[in-house]
Recover the amino acids of this structure.
């Protein structure tokens, strides 16, 4: 066990066990009588004549000495335990133990009621059988003996990242043990970098660039100008050089694109004239739902199966939407919205989770969805569940905004369409792609607003209000002023002029 204790970072156990093992190797020469008893089979402690009652010495200490300390009336219950009390207790325990054994013998009382070993009782056998059935059911959908050789947590399905190396614990521990040889116990110190890396080891935050040192352009500018005032006659020489490692007009200090307040553009259009509807139509309509927005509508509870989570989404869609079509995002490859996804994850880095329909959720929703592989597998499961329940569902190869708009425009050939989403990108694309000669398209949010009513956009009215030329140019205006795929240029507002 020494290599595994060392690899796991149990430093005190590693030192103590190493010293103990060294002493035991010399027991034949230093303590021949003890060695002779060991060789005769007297290497366990027997506190009774019951069958299979031999105990290792450390377990005997726990059952006798430590029980008397920690049980009711012991030294650690309601009183201090200094060196004097500890010494008195240790010296008194052998005598007290003798008295205890004699009293049990005289009275016929003891901890056990029979000589039968506790593991041989019918009750224990029934409990063991139930435990086997529970374990069998647990492993039914979590078979660890698959062709997949990746390290993973059998309980949660969490797959370890490439840095985890607990499968090499023996090799890692052996190296630590070798480094301990010929070293003083008191002086030797363990280094955390030499321990095995587990699945839960701290991972770096999710940033675009981790190797490049952070440079604050404002601080650098202040320092250079301060130094230049003393050493340079002409300060203009300072401004001939780039003062930061990235263009600060387009990127924030964390090297993410400057985030735009996209709602400013939508508010400007809304306030420019009458482009809204007083209410949504109730007959001869179809609903197109943004699956990315829908994904965050249902709270996840630990202990529910993934199949139950998908059923919650089905119930939500059936309850709130008529003839719905759910358009889901795809997460197979990198998309143009990777920067936005990183910002939404707030630096959370999650491992891949291998799960099935009947597997219980064991991690937080935010942690689970921070991994694109997890999100893709769940979206596929959700899509399958929606279709099985008679709900039309489609999935894009990457970002679904364009597919949502195309689906809405296609369905507006025969029916009026209500698009449910929250992203200004959807509004801009709808205004750009919608045709005036088709049925009306409405855009609103399915989010339950607590302070004010949701806006209901009439796309036909909006196109008429701002004009065909501006509708054609609107995606460019939205991109240049900042959206999910482009940076907000410093100093440029999203107001529509």
């Amino acid at each position: 066990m020494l290599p595994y204790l060392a690899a796991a970072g149990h430093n005190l156990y590693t030192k103590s066990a190493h010293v103990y093992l060294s002493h035991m190797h010399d027991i034949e020469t230093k303590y021949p009588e003890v060695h002779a008893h060991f060789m005769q089979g007297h290497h366990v402690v027997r506190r009774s004549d019951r069958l299979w009652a031999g105990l290792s010495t450390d377990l005997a200490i726990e059952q006798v000495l430590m029980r008397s300390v920690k049980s009711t009336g012991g030294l650690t219950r309601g009183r201090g335990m200094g060196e004097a009390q500890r010494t008195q207790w240790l010296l008194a325990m052998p005598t007290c133990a003798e008295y205890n054994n004699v009293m049990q013998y005289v009275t016929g009382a003891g901890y056990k009621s029979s000589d039968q070993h506790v593991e041989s009782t019918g009750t224990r056998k029934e409990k063991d059988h139930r435990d086997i059935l529970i374990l069998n059911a647990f492993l039914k959908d979590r078979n660890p003996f698959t062709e997949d050789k990746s390290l993973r947590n059998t309980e949660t399905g969490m797959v370890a990242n490439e840095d985890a190396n607990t499968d090499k614990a023996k090799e890692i521990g052996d190296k630590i043990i070798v480094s301990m040889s010929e070293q003083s116990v008191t002086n030797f110190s363990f280094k955390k970098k030499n321990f095995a890396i587990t699945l839960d080891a701290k991972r770096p935050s999710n940033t675009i660039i981790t190797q490049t040192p952070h440079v604050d352009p404002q601080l650098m500018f202040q320092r250079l100008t301060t130094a230049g005032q003393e050493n340079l006659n002409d300060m203009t020489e300072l401004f001939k050089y780039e003062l930061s490692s990235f263009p600060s007009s387009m990127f924030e200090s964390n090297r993410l694109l400057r985030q735009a307040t996209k709602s400013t553009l939508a508010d400007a259009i809304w306030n420019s004239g009458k482009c809204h509807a007083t209410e949504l139509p109730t007959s001869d309509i179809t609903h197109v739902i943004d699956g990315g927005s829908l994904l965050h509508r249902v709270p996840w509870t630990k202990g529910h199966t993934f199949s139950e989570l998908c059923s919650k989404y089905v119930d939500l869609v059936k309850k709130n939407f008529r003839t719905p079509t759910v358009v889901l995002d795809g997460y197979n490859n990198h998309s143009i919205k990777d920067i936005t996804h990183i910002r939404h994850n707030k630096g959370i880095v999650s491992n891949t989770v291998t799960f099935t329909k009947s597997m219980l959720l064991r991690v937080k929703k935010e942690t689970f969805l921070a991994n694109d592989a997890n999100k893709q597998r769940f979206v596929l499961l959700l899509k399958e569940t929606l279709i099985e329940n008679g709900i039309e569902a489609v999935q894009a190869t990457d970002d679904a905004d364009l597919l949502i708009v195309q689906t809405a425009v296609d369905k507006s050939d025969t029916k009026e369409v209500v698009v449910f989403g929250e992203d200004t990108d959807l509004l801009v694309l709808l205004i750009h792609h919608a045709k005036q000669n088709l049925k009306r398209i409405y855009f609103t949010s399915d989010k339950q607003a607590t302070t004010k009513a949701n806006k209901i956009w009439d796309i036909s009215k909006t196109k008429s209000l701002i004009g065909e030329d501006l509708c054609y140019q609107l995606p460019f205006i939205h991109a240049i002023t900042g959206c999910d795929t482009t940076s907000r240029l410093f100093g440029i507002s999203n107001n529509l002029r």
In short: Residues 289 and 420 are 5 Å apart (CA to CA). Strands lie at 45-46, 54-55, 285-290, 324-328, 392-395, 416-420, 441-444, 457-458. The first strand starts at residue 45 and ends at 46. The radius of gyration is 35 Å.
